[in-house]
Design goal:
This protein is an alpha/beta fold. It has helices at 20-28, 36-41, 61-70, 88-92, 109-117, 148-156, 170-179, 207-212, 255-264, 282-290, 303-316, 350-360, 374-387, 429-434; strands at 5-10, 31-34, 50-53, 75-80, 101-104, 125-128, 159-163, 186-192, 200-201, 219-225, 272-276, 295-300, 321-325, 340-343, 366-371, 390-396, 399-404, 407-412, 416-422. Strands 13-12-11-14-15-19-16 form a seven-stranded mixed β-sheet, sandwiched between helices. Strands 3-2-4-1-5 form a five-stranded parallel β-sheet, sandwiched between helices. The protein has a five-stranded mixed β-sheet with strand order 6-7-10-8-9, with helices on both faces. Helix 6 (148-156) links the parallel strand 6 (125-128) and strand 7 (159-163). Helix 12 (350-360) crosses helix 13 (374-387). The protein is elongated.
């Protein structure tokens, strides 16, 4: 008979959580692999088997399994709850022969928590914050932080189930909500030690209450929005929505220019965007709302504008936006490869910046620049010609209505040149007419 690897879901009440099939498989297994806590909870049932503690040795587990199967000896891998819901099976199955794998799931801790609350959970978004400890959440942190996905999901969803870790615990999650200004939007439940004799499920608490308390491990966190979320405006936000530096006129990329610039950047939900010479942050913050699964990186050299960016970032309710005080090209080498770059100010390094940005763009990426001076326009065009880029220029000169006596007139804004460039060959129109995808053409 062919030896198999079984992934068995276990709860914190050990053998009591297993059905007859799972118990029979476990008692016959020659090898049992699990974390130390699960090995201890089933010590009586697995005393006959060779035991492996996978804590800190996850990469070695496939070798253990394949070695046992090669010797025609069955293996049981124990996981908490459902092995395929943020469990070890999801990681290991791709490294094993699927024909020799069987899954025996149990109730997940998420199901158990919602059951205790009598709360339907089909609309809940599941987020795992098991990751390397990156410390407390700070506004503007990037995707490397273990709480990044969670804070993004909190912006977009109303009900979340969070699989915590010892470091990214309920207190740290509550502190994240406080830091991001979302503490008043959510109420929190902490479900602790489910199916253990110390099981405890809290009432709905405030972020401040959770931040100040301590909890048993393991636990999960339920985040429930108090009121229906209001979808924000994604595109074409009024200039007055931004704090801006105002000498004679506001130093901001105006709405008409911003709209065309964002359109030319060809953004997707997951785009990585660079905003160079961020000013008030208007382009970058609006891009962040569009790229809800991406991230925007901004840089600005003027300290007064940095203050405005900080204010606007706090007011805009986005968590996928980071900025630094500095002068490009500083910091650019530490940023991930962009899908789009916007240059609103260059500090005299325009030609160098264009070359750097075109060199870093992902395939099909776009560099978009706005200029109000002929000199910068000339530098940009000549540099793009030298680099062999595909480029075009669009001039925007908008006029806005303005009251005069009891009537209205049009008041002209300064003309702006928008230069768009890419290193990807642009297919002729007939290629898309005959083949709408644009792929597979010569």
């Amino acid at each position: 008979m062919t030896a198999l690897c079984y992934f068995i879901g276990v709860l914190d009440d050990g053998a009591n959580s297993l059905n007859g099939e799972a118990l029979q498989v476990l008692r016959k297994a020659k090898h049992v692999i699990a974390g130390g806590r699960l090995l201890a909870s089933l010590a009586t049932e697995i005393s006959h088997a060779q035991q492996y503690n996978l804590t800190g040795q996850l990469k070695t587990v496939p070798k253990w399994i394949n070695s046992a199967l090669a010797n025609a000896e069955s293996v049981a891998v124990l996981a908490s709850g459902d092995p395929l819901c943020h469990g070890i099976a999801g990681y290991l199955i791709g490294k094993l022969d699927r024909n020799k794998v069987r899954i025996l799931p149990n109730l997940s801790s998420i199901q158990l928590a919602f059951t205790q609350l009598c709360l339907p959970w089909q609309s809940a978004i599941i987020v795992s914050v098991h990751s390397q400890d990156a410390g407390d959440w700070q506004r503007g942190a990037c995707s490397q932080h273990g709480l990044y996905e969670l804070v993004q999901c909190c912006r977009q969803h109303d009900l979340l189930a969070v699989l915590t870790s010892p470091e990214n615990n309920p207190q740290r999650i509550a502190a994240m909500l406080l830091e991001e200004g979302m503490a008043d939007e959510f109420e929190i439940v902490v479900a602790q030690a489910l199916k253990h004799h110390e099981q405890c499920v809290t009432a709905f608490l405030s972020a401040a209450e959770v931040r100040a308390a301590t909890y048993l491990d393991p636990n999960i966190v339920i985040l429930k929005r108090k009121n229906k979320r209001i979808d924000p405006i994604l595109f074409g936000v009024s200039d007055t929505s931004f704090q801006q530096r105002k000498p004679n006129k506001g130093l901001i990329t105006k709405r008409e220019v911003r709209a065309v610039s964002l359109a030319r950047m060809q953004l997707t939900r997951s785009s990585v965007v660079w905003d160079i010479g961020a000013g008030s942050g208007s382009v970058g913050l609006e891009a962040a709302r569009i790229c809800v699964d991406g991230h925007v990186y901004g840089i600005e050299k003027n300290i007064d504008d940095i203050t405005n960016i900080q204010q606007n970032h706090g007011n805009w309710g986005v968590s996928n936006y980071s900025f630094v005080h500095g002068k490009a090209p500083d910091y650019l080498d530490s940023w991930p490869t962009p899908n789009a770059v916007f240059i609103g100010g260059s500090g005299g390094e325009l030609a160098e910046l264009i070359e750097i940005c075109l060199g870093r763009l992902q395939q099909n990426g776009w560099l978009v620049m706005s200029f109000v001076t002929l000199e910068n326009l000339s530098v940009a065009v000549e540099t793009l010609k030298k680099l062999g880029a595909n480029w075009d220029v669009c001039q925007i000169q908008a006029s806005r209505s303005s009251p005069i006596l009891n009537m209205n007139r049009l008041q002209a804004e300064n003309p702006v040149w928008i230069v768009s460039a890419t290193i990807t060959p642009i297919l002729p129109l007939e290629s898309f007419t005959n083949n709408p995808t644009g792929y597979g053409t010569n």
